[in-house]
Every structure is written in C-alpha cells, then in structure tokens.
Amino acid sequence: MSMEPVTLENWMRPPYNVSAYQRIGELIPTAPISRGAGPVHDLIAEGTGLGSLELRLQDGPRRRLTVAELVEWSHTDALVVLHRGRLVHEQYEHGMRPGTRHLCMSVSKSITATAVGSVIESGALSPDDEVGAIVPEFRGTGLAGASVRHLLDMRTGTREDITTLELQRAYFSICQWAPPAGPPDEDSRSHFWRLTQVRPHGGDFEYRSTLTCVLALLAERATGLRVPELISRHLWRRLGAEHDAEITVDRSGHALADIGVCCTARDLARLGEALRRDGLRPDGTRVVPEGWVADTLTPDGDQAAAFLRHGSPYLTVPGAYYRNQWWVAAPRTPDGGGVYMALGIHGQMLFVHEAAGVVIAKFSSWPEPWIDDLARGSIAGCLAIADTLSSLST
C-alpha cells in the first residue's frame, strides 16, 4: 500500500517527517543562505568508519551499543563525526546524501546566535544594549528593560504566549508550516508586542523560541540585513561551506531564526569544527569572533543555578547551563576544554567536545518532538564516541 503524499497537514508526523525534513523547500517557502564563492573547507576522510565501534553509555536506557546500533535506535538520518578535523565517520540513512539539506529545528537558534556574535564583535550590537533602545516598539511591552544578554541566555522575565495546541497551530499557519488559517494580517512577529513580564529580567533560564526571533529582529535593525543575508555574511560565507543553506520564511517574508534553518550535515560539522578551533578554519580564516566560544564556555556566577529549574530536564548533567543559545554540559577550565551542543526537536544535534577534539553533527527524524530516552541516549552516545576516540588516540 502506497503512503499518502507529504503535505502541510502531515509533514511533522511519522512516517512523513522522515522524507519531509529532507525537502523542506518543496513544502514551505524558504530564503537562501548563500555560501558565497569562496573555497570549500575540505573534510579529509580518515579510516573506514566507526559503525562497529562499541560504546559504553553513562546515561539513557541503553548501556552498551555500537555506533551503527546508536544510529538505528535513535532514528538517525545523517551522522558526521570529526576527530581533530578529520572525517572519521559519515553515515546517511532514509535517502539522505552528503549534499542533502535537512531541517535543523532549534539547532537554528545556535546558528543564528553565532552569527549575531559577529554582529556584536563588529560593534553594531552589544550584550548590554537594552532591547527597546534598538527596537523602540518594545518600549512599554514585557521586554522593556531586557538586554541582548538576557535574550542570548533566555533569561528574560517574559512569559511565552504560544502555550496551547490551538495557539501553536495558528502560529505554524502564520509561519507557513501549516495550512492557512488565522488572521491574514498577522505574521510570526505579531505576538512580540503582546509579551507580558511575569518576573524580573535576568532570573531563571527558561527555554522560549520567541527570544531567538526577537534577537534576530534586533540584529536586523542593528545591521540593516535580513536574517538570511546576515547568517550568510557573518557565518556561512566564512565557513567554507560546501552548499548553500536555506531558512523558512513566514507570510511576511520574515525568516524563522529559531527553527527554520536547513543545511547539510557536513556543513553543520564544519561549523562545529570552526567553533572547536576557537572560531578558526584550519587554514586560519576567522569564522567566529575571537572570544565568542570562550564567552560561551565561561558562565556567569549564577548561570548554572539559574538553569536548574527549567533546563535540567533537557540536559541532565550537573553544572550544565545555557549561554549564547548553546547548551553547555561542561565549561572550559584550566584543566580541560568545554563540552557544548546545539539541540533541536526530533533529534537534531551539533556536539562539540574540545578536550577530545570531537565534533558530531546528527540529523534525525524522531516519531515525537521530544523523547527523553532518545535525547539522553543521543547525548550519552556522543559523549561515549568522544571518550572512545580520545582514548584510542592517546
């Protein structure tokens, strides 16, 4: 029996999401994120792959499995593993290829924020800037008095207002992620001005996608660049990416900076490798500002405590925190490098382990948006790959 076509009604549900995440541009309007005309940062393959490598996981429902079993168990579509810049494992499932773009979901947040890091380095924006000073329309709203730093670390005192299934469906319709519905004059930014403040800014971390979109709007106003061009100019063209990326846009043409980036697994790994090298490509080209990664891996004194209430269910690691829109499992210390990652629903991940010299890009198509066992197991699997590669090279 043949499966019904993939549509805006079903594309985020299994089994349709497996195919849909690889061809978002056929379903939803997108804008290109150009790689430019510069040379590609070549990934040099080393070895025959890690499929049979046995891993010992410290967390999650599985305690021992091979890399190949991890791929199958966690509904992986693509897995790219770099060790000290060398491509030591590359695996594609469900029709994916090295040149296939895949929806990043909330890994988009980390990509957007990293591009904003370059805007900050240019002087056009500062972490201390008040939101209302950059976008006057925020004066008198729940974001009045919040800073760029509060947005970067998701520590504003505002309440997320897309809190019910009905509101989410309406929002996805406005974003063109679902069939048309709702007021025709609304777009994905209309709810910004309705945000309410429920506690002081700078308190607990709480994960809210809206804050990434607000950050993107501030960067647009500060630079005069739309989000796709901003990411292209401040990140993708510098990266040595092999392929253009793309980002979904709403009915007003606003890019979904929080969830809409689509790219290849190799290019996502290239970003991780540049970050692992403190913002530099292997040829010395600067991709990310000097100090951005160090800032991400240096928490404020209260950052880990602020993370506990709302963040620990996602990242169950003692001392973890969220900074610059990256999930940090371990800060950088005098004794060792940091461990940090970008995470997205349905199993999207970019993982960086500095001490082990390991970068892992993983695209997946989980049957549900968030599955605790798969999330914990996937993170534990990446940690186990890093630990194993580190031990094999010493």
Automatic annotation (TrEMBL):
Q: Reply yes or no: does the keyword Iron-sulfur apply.
A: no
Q: What is its EC number?
A: 3.-.-.-
Listed InterPro entries: Beta-lactam-related, Diverse_Enzym_Activities
What domain of life does the native source organism fall in? Bacteria
Pfam families found in the cross-reference section: Beta-lactamase
Asked if Hydrolase is a keyword of the record, the answer is yes
- The Beta-lactamase-related domain extends over 72-369
Q: Which UniProt keywords apply?
A: Hydrolase
Q: Which PANTHER family match?
A: BETA-LACTAMASE-RELATED, BETA-LACTAMASE-RELATED DOMAIN-CONTAINING PROTEIN
| Protein's UniProt name | Serine hydrolase domain-containing protein
Record lineage: Bacteria, Bacillati, Actinomycetota, Actinomycetes, Streptosporangiales
